[in-house]
């Protein structure tokens, strides 16, 4: 029959192993670029907290006595529930921000598509022979003709603020043209 102390030591070794494994998995995901550094900080902090509680069981007992809990593992569950709550709230904020960015990008793509269509109508379609002297038209597709009329990007790349103000100006111009509010 095993001693209760031996079982506790086995559980402690298991807890330390799980904590170290979690830390290793998170670092490996970051290394492989499957998890960004921004999100990895949450998981590294969680793994470090678990490792700390696994190595020094006295911290768990001290925390239990401090908040008036008689069963120390209940404090661990309380900490885990709090951690899950914080992570859920954080990811809700991230998802909301990304949804707003996606909506803005969809609107910008729609405006760009309308600009491209307007440019195509103003330029008209050009036969491949007119585009390149000596071209017979064989092997060319409608996709080749679509490139006509597109403004070539010359100069520096726009910053987010410049793109945003350009987007706002185009959106205001569209609203004026169509009479939408």
Describe the structure in your own words.
- This protein is mainly α and 181 residues long.
- It folds into two domains: 4-91; 99-178, no CATH class.
- 76% of the residues lie in helices and 0% in strands.
- The chain has helices at 4-31, 37-55, 57-67, 72-123, 128-131, 142-146, 160-178.
Q: Would you kindly provide a brief summary of this structure?
A:
This protein is an all-alpha fold. It has helices at 4-31, 37-55, 57-67, 72-123, 128-131, 142-146, 160-178.
Provide tags for this entry:
single chain; 181 residues; mainly alpha; 2 domains; 76% helix; 0% strand
Largest sheet: none
Helix content: over 70%
Would you identify the regions where 5 or more consecutive residues have pLDDT less than 50?
A: 139-156
The H/E string reads: HHHHHHH
| Number of domain units | 2
**Average pLDDT taken over every residue:** 77
Distance between the terminal alpha carbons, to the nearest Å? 80 Å
How many strands in all? 0
Overall SS class: mainly alpha
Tell me the β content: under 5%
Shape: elongated
Separate helix tally: 7
> How many whole angstroms does the radius of gyration measure?
30 Å
